[in-house]
Amino acid sequence: MKRRHFMSTAAMTSVGAACLGQFPVKAAVAETHEMTISNTESFVVHSDHVGDAFQISAAFPTVLQSKPLTKRPPRIVYCVDGGGYGPILIQTGRYLGMDLDRSIEPLLVVAIEYPDSASMPRLLLRNRDLVTPGTFIPEWVQQALGGSGPEPASDQFLSFIEEELDPLIRKRYDHSDAGAALVGDSYGGLFALYAFFRQSKTFDHYLMGSPGAVTENDPVFDVEAGQFEKGVKLKGRVYMAIGEHEGPNSGTSYELLGKNYYKLVELLRKRAYPDLQWTAEIIPGETHASVIPFSLSRGIRWLFGKEGDPALAPVPTL
Known about the structure:
alpha/beta, eight-stranded mixed beta sheet, two-stranded antiparallel sheet
């Protein structure tokens, strides 16, 4: 077990007086050090389902003066793509937990990522773990990520979380009795959508940022169709968002993502599942990359805020 470190470079510069004709006499000295997210611990877990290892970072709720902000046990929130989105989610959740006017419930964020010893580039492993089985990785995505990677197998990754990781986390850390939440963006949002359609018994709250269904007739919709045919009624609490510049007529690479987002909204509206609470936002002015902090912040407030809190600022919804 160890603290999770995030690399940062700090420049320490000594300057002389700049007045009276004097100029700096010492050059900048660069010093590299590790930046740590406090109150977080990290360890590696091997998955029999996936046949690979994962780096797990567990981040505890806000602590002030060495004391928890609340005695209320935290809800477990799993975050895929944990190395990138995890730090944003962790710190955003902690700050919102201290908000005097709109405080959310305490969160135990469990960020899932790949260890430094990963067998191949992380972006290719994402294709294996986050993409719905049977999905073709589009050429433009392959060019952006440097290849297609192994065959998509998000079913095995979901089994890893449900059957191997979640029991370990619940045994290891204090937590509330509430169902866990799943957070993901882009292909991570697609994975959250897949888990939601599968009606995973581990999760009952989902945050799907820019869910990455980027193919025509995307196989993730077949998962929902199969559930519907079996009479399964989807339930839970779901927040979804995309940026304005991911829309169907945005003229960007993400137009098909936007079309499938609209398709998803129409599907949920048509099904009208009685035990499903959901919202689908479009964040003005944002792109596939720039929307991430907005969807994370708005999503966890919508999912974990308290009844009677001030409403979120209005944005377009579908």
